[in-house]
């Protein structure tokens, strides 16, 4: 394995890729997810220290779910309780101090309202959302979409237009958060197969044998070399899907099939903390049969490796909408 794989084995994998991708996808194409709304959170999608808070406060009102609250918090701060925006939005929920003064609550009952304390800020985010949901409760349409639109554009605009107002920013926000929420939900049925999987695998297969480069994006000045997330990003970019640069953000680019539901083209992730997707340190592209194509580490080449290791975290079935819903963290992204 260390020096790559033999030609015969490579050809066997290519057969597996072509047959496995399309036969598995065909078998699942008609098996859509069950109806209803998932209230459970996907394993490790929310850092363990915040999971109980998100689960509890994410059911505060009918328009809210834990996954939706998680999507908002991740989009706002990436789970960083010390985040500060250029507009002076603060903490894990990114409250402006003036908004906090009117809507922050003492979520943990310790006698104060601390904008920096997730035990106050996460309950306050849910409480504020539900206040807005109540304000627009009489507006026709989907209650969750109207709540999110009120968060972005104000309740008056939602009432004025009788639903999500015709603002590009607001419509984009509603779509992004509702789409992103799917990456935080525990799937309640089969996850739809990716239509771009075969093309992504084809790209990655062509890179087999290329030396690893930390921070590598495959550019000519890097001699076409990649690191792990650089390879998966480029593979999906080849089929028109723009993924984030780092592995732990790529995890949120779609829903999460279980180990026994994996299909070729799924991204597979490995973490130092199996309860926290933010601790993911490696990603590969699943090809079937318990193997992935990946760029492993300095001194190795892009190759096939087994996925069943003690640090296996989970998988993501990438979708174009899922990837597009992710916040842009390119300014502070570091390769992994």
Strand and helix map with partners:
Elements: H1 7-28, H2 48-57, H3 66-77, H4 97-103, H5 118-135, H6 143-153, H7 155-161, H8 168-181, H9 197-206, H10 228-237, H11 247-250, E1 254-255, E2 267-271, E3 280-288, E4 291-294, E5 303-306, E6 312-318, H12 320-324
Antiparallel strand pairs: 1-6, 2-3, 2-6, 3-4, 4-5
Task: Explain briefly what this protein structure is.
This protein has 336 residues and is an alpha+beta fold. Helices cover 39% and strands 9% of the residues.
Keywords:
single chain; 336 residues; alpha+beta; six-stranded antiparallel sheet; 39% helix
Explain the overall architecture.
Strand 3 and strand 4 form a beta hairpin. The protein contains twelve helices and six strands. With 336 residues, the protein is an alpha+beta fold. Strands 1-6-2-3-4-5 form a six-stranded antiparallel sheet. The N terminus is likely disordered. It is elongated.
């Amino acid at each position: 394995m260390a020096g790559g794989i033999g030609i015969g084995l490579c050809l066997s994998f290519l057969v597996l890729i072509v047959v496995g991708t399309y036969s598995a996808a065909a078998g699942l194409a008609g098996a859509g997810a069950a109806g209803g709304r998932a209230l459970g959170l996907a394993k490790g999608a929310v850092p363990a220290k915040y999971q109980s808070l998100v689960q509890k406060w994410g059911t505060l009102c009918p328009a809210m779910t834990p996954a939706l609250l998680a999507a908002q918090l991740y989009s706002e701060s990436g789970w960083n309780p010390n985040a500060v925006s250029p507009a002076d939005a603060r903490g894990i929920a990114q409250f402006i101090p003036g908004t906090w003064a009117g809507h922050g609550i003492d979520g943990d009952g310790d006698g104060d309202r601390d904008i920096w304390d997730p035990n106050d800020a996460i309950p306050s985010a849910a409480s504020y959302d539900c206040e807005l949901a109540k304000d627009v409760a009489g507006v026709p349409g989907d209650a969750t979409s109207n709540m999110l639109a009120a968060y972005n554009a104000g309740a008056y605009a939602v009432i004025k237009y009788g639903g999500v107002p015709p603002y590009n920013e607001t419509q984009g926000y509603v779509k992004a958060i509702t789409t992103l929420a799917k990456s935080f939900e525990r799937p309640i049925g089969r996850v739809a197969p990716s239509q771009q999987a075969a093309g992504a695998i084809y790209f990655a297969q062509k890179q087999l044998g290329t030396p690893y480069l930390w921070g590598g994006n495959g550019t000519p000045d890097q001699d076409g070399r990649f690191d792990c997330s650089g390879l998966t990003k480029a593979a999906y970019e080849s089929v028109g899907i723009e993924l984030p640069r780092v592995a732990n953000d790529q995890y949120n680019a779609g829903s999460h099939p279980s180990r026994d539901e994996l299909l070729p083209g799924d991204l597979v992730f490995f973490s130092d903390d199996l309860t926290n997707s933010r601790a993911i340190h490696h990603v590969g592209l699943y090809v079937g049969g318990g193997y992935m194509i990946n760029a492993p580490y300095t001194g190795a080449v892009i190759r096939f490796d087994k996925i069943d290791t003690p640090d296996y975290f989970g998988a993501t079935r990438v979708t174009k909408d899922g990837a597009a819903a992710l916040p842009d963290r390119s300014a502070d992204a570091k390769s992994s």
